[in-house]
Design goal:
This protein is α/β, with parallel strands linked by helices and 483 residues long. The chain has 13 helices and 19 strands. The protein folds into four domains: 126 residues, 3-Layer(aba) Sandwich (Rossmann fold), CATH 3.40.50.2300; 90 residues, Beta-Lactamase, CATH 3.30.450.20; 72 residues, Orthogonal Bundle (Helix Hairpins); 148 residues, Histidine kinase-like ATPase, C-terminal domain (Heat Shock Protein 90). The model has no long low-confidence stretch (mean pLDDT 88). Bound molecules: adenosine-5'-diphosphate (ADP).
């Protein structure tokens, strides 16, 4: 038996306590007698005893209850209960409480030592077994970890061969994994170690930095990354639970080039169409001045005018879109959106009256100014309010509201028109798309909302529609206010 093990004696002063102390001392145990409950707690915590002997009544407390409390806190601590006599039910209660040993008179010194040694050995065996089990379980976990290491290598091989750039990051945006393409995109040597380094340090690119900032704000998770040599990539951030996230990068240079060619085309064609249209208009006016026209001629002229007007609108809107999409809209000044709205509503006043619509305007609180091109903001409001009036049947209601939400201006244009089906709600912002619910005979080019979206985009804003068919639509625009 390993000696110098500490035995705590939690018994009230009595001849048996002396006997125990002597017996255990003689058997080379360290023995400490504790006087009360707090002394017991302190000793158990500070000196890690090999065993405690508890009296059936100690310092005014029932020994079995005290043992139970101790075992709740130290489940592997061996406890022997000492009772003045073996009362019926005692042994059962000892067993039930999870107490390791039970002593009662008559007792000789060797009985005490034997019971203590037996209990300590049993506890030690249990401790050894526990340690072995823990080792075995950890070993099997390590085995499993080895498998996942193999899987990690497999995963790395797959990611390496993907044609998109991929970088996996932890929660602090430090690199866990980066594939070959990612290195190629940013010209990072294949041998340069990246693991554990901050993405910001490895890729000091302003666009990438902006994307990572956006991920923290919980805003849009993609960003275009432009390189001086003309390459353009679309970088997308995907959060990965319990790991962090991954940035994937796709080469969209050819799509950008196609977009540029298309915009050039629209721009040129629109210009070339505008001049003949102006001259058609001019000649139509001249015809009217050449002499009185008969009824049919007047009707034909009216139809001609309608068509030429439609074509002019189309060309003007295409030109606007072309300019916006090509990034020519660079004029920025402080604009008070409330004032712009007032102008828009003035212009539509007669149409509202003609259709007997109820107009409600609601400007909540102080709406801050925005840094914007006032012409474009006006165009945006004209399109939204114009549509609400155009698509709402007679006697309906149009409600325009403006408010602040943190540092954003929220513009909401609601109507009681035909509404837009859910699957078409995002499509109405595409060029030339007209929804299936538009009433027959309502003229339009299908370009107004595409312009609205371009204006919102070029002002770092957002636009969307909330709508229910048969009830109405609400177009919502968010624009960042000028701080
Ligand atoms: P359009 O010149 O056809 O009005 P827009 O781009 O402004 O073109 O709108 C695209 C389509 O979205 C419209 O054709 C119409 O179907 C739908 N739309 C736009 N505004 C509304 C609205 N307030 N209520 C119902 N449908 C609308």
């Amino acid at each position: 038996m390993a000696k110098q093990e500490l035995i705590l004696l939690a018994l009230d002063a009595s001849p048996i306590l002396d006997l125990m102390e002597r017996a255990l001392h003689a058997a080379s145990f360290d023995v400490v007698i504790v006087k009360d409950r707090s002394g017991l707690d302190k000793s158990v915590q500070e000196s890690v005893p090999a065993l405690i002997v508890v009296g059936e009544n100690f310092a005014g407390q029932d020994g079995i209850t005290l043992s139970k409390e101790m075992l709740e806190r130290f489940p592997t601590l061996p406890i022997i209960l000492y009772a003045k006599q073996d009362a019926p039910g005692n042994a059962k209660a000892v067993l039930k409480a999870g107490i390791s040993g039970y002593l009662y008179p008559p007792l000789k010194m060797e009985d005490i030592v034997n019971e203590v040694e037996r209990t300590v050995i049993r506890a030690r065996r249990l401790g050894d077994w526990l340690r072995r089990e823990v080792k075995r379980t950890t070993a099997s976990l390590a085995e499993k970890a080895k498998i996942s290491e193999a899987e990690r290598i497999k995963l790395e091989a797959i990611i390496s061969n993907i044609q998109d750039g991929v970088v996996v990051l932890d929660d602090h945006q430090d690199i866990l994994l980066a594939n070959r393409m990612m290195r190629e995109i940013f010209g990072i040597d294949l041998n340069e170690p990246l693991l554990g380094r901050s993405l910001k340090d490895v890729i000091p690119n302003a666009d990438m930095h902006a994307l990572m900032l956006r991920t923290r704000e919980g805003a849009l998770k993609y960003h275009e990354i432009n390189f001086d040599d003309g390459r353009v990539y679309n970088a997308q951030y995907t959060p990965i639970p319990k790991i962090g996230g991954a940035v994937t990068m796709q080469d969209i240079s050819y799509l950008k080039e196609l977009d540029r060619l298309k915009n050039d085309f629209i721009h040129t064609v629109s210009h070339d169409l505008r001049s003949p249209l102006t001259s058609v208009f001019g000649y139509m006016e001249l015809i009217e001045r050449t002499g009185p026209l008969n009824e049919s001629q007047i009707e034909f002229m009216r139809r001609l005018q309608g068509s030429v007007q439609h074509m002019t609108n189309l060309v003007n809107e295409l030109l606007d879109l072309g300019r916006l999409e090509a990034g020519f809209d660079t004029r920025r000044e402080l604009v008070q959106p409330e004032n712009v709205l007032r102008y828009t509503l003035d212009v539509f006043d007669s149409q509202i009256k003609k259709k007997k619509l109820t107009l409600e305007t609601n400007v909540t609180g102080e709406v801050r100014p925005i840094r914007a091109n006032p012409i474009r903001i006006r165009q945006m409001l004209d399109n939204l309010v114009g549509n609400a009036i155009k698509y709402t049947p007679e006697g309906g209601r149009v409600r325009v509201s403006m408010s602040m939400q943190e540092n954003q201006i929220v513009i909401r244009v609601e109507d009681t028109g035909p509404g837009i089906p859910p699957d078409e709600q995002s499509r109405v912002f595409e060029k030339f798309y007209r929804a299936s619910t538009r009433p027959q005979g309502v003229e339009g080019t299908g370009l107004g909302l595409a312009i609205v979206k371009s204006v919102a985009d070029s002002h770092q804003g957002r636009v969307w529609v909330e709508s229910k068919v048969g009830e109405g639509s609400a177009f919502v625009v968010l624009l960042p206010s000028h701080e």
